[in-house]
Design brief:
- This protein is mainly alpha-helical.
- Among the domains are: 28-45 and 66-171, Alpha Horseshoe (Serine Threonine Protein Phosphatase 5, Tetratricopeptide repeat), CATH 1.25.40; 371-474, Serine Threonine Protein Phosphatase 5, Tetratricopeptide repeat (Alpha Horseshoe).
- Helices cover 67% and strands 0% of the residues.
- The longest helix is centred in the last third of the chain and has 20 residues, at 333-352.
Length: 487
Amino acid sequence: MDNRLSAPGTSPVAGPPPPRRRLRWPRRVLVVALAGGVAAGAVLTLSPRDRRHGMAPAPAAGPRAQAPASVTFGVPAALPQLTALIGQQEQRVRAQPRDARAWAVLGSAYVERGREAADPASFPKAEQALRTSLRVRGAHNTEALDGLAALALARRDFPAAKQYAEQALKASPGRWASYPPVIDAYNGLGDYDAAHKALDKLLGLRTGAAARPAVMARAAAVYRDRGWREDAVAQLTDAAAAARTPAEQAAYLTGLGQLAWERGDLKEALRHFEAALRLEPGRRGALTGRGRTLAALGRTTEALTAYRTALARQPDPQDILELGELYESLGQDRSATAQYAQLRTRVRQAVAAGVDEELLIGRFEADHGNPFEAVERLEEEYRRQPGIEGADALGWALHRAGDDKEALTYASVATDKTKGGGVRSAPYAFHRGIIEGELELYGPARRHLQEALRINPYFSPLRAPEAREALAALGDVPEEPLPAEAP
């Protein structure tokens, strides 16, 4: 299914735009082959029988097996094991530069380290290693193709991810590790029906015990995007129970914490995030998730500490923006400004490494900078990869730029199940409600603002209070006289 609109917004806003800042964002660098989704690259040798049934040999238990499994099965691994694996593979390719499999393992390990550590500097190294593997073995090198698809996902280049993932799938349709990248690519391009069909094929494969938790986690992600929250929770719960290593279990518990956060269940979210951190103290998603939840609980000092700990280890741009908005909600404008300056620095580094950060830049500019620049960037981004995230961001940017009529078109895409917007998202519902209120569509505005606060009353330290204020301003549903009876 294609979410492209027949007439993309043009933002005909009256009045001059606000002055441009001296410090400009970098424009997206288009790189043909790009890094890191759930399954980076299947690099262990399978027997003919295993290849026929889409199965792979189970990884040995223990720390040494964690990192190879992460690039073989899509099983999360701890950063120290990934670093050790990279060191081993670097030694191997120096000794045997014609070993295509070793190059593929090395490239996929770089992808995973870059993704897990929020370190985009790993991505060019990953691309070089994976392309070397392709040159050595040829175009039917499924391990390298999987790695390149994962690299494209990490850089948010969904067209490239789709190209590489489909090539890998065509070469080996019974190999389960090729399915997660293609599912993610379809989702990023707004083709949700294709993503669901690919998931059905993945679930129909016979996967070994080692791979099964990662398959469950992939199913949970698709179910979440379709709005099937209970099914997503069930799949991730089973994945966490079946996980074979602490890092793997911590990753799935982090996912359960995020699902609980999205439905506003703070106690459950905090329980999962803290359980994940007991297993893997440095897991970034659990640290920031814990910070987000503590802030909603009013435990502000602990929340700030959790965020700072996460960012000291792995300064991810999205997490930096989140902390900046928390500071802003607390009236600490100087600290917020410092975070936004750090965000610009990290985005420049990510773009230099081939990452497409247009969505994040657009969101930032819409709320904290120049909404006209946000519209310009997000219109181009949405034309290239029209997922519901892009539709929501573009709709909100158009609203902030004053074009609410056009904004509603995109906000409707993001929240319309028939167009793929099945995910139950408080921010999406909030954005649509605010836009409808500006258009004097008071009934729909009231419904969507209520929906946002019903889904998660704490969805943003800045925007949740705004949603409550807007809902209060709309007042109660007006009493209207009953229609006259027909004569």
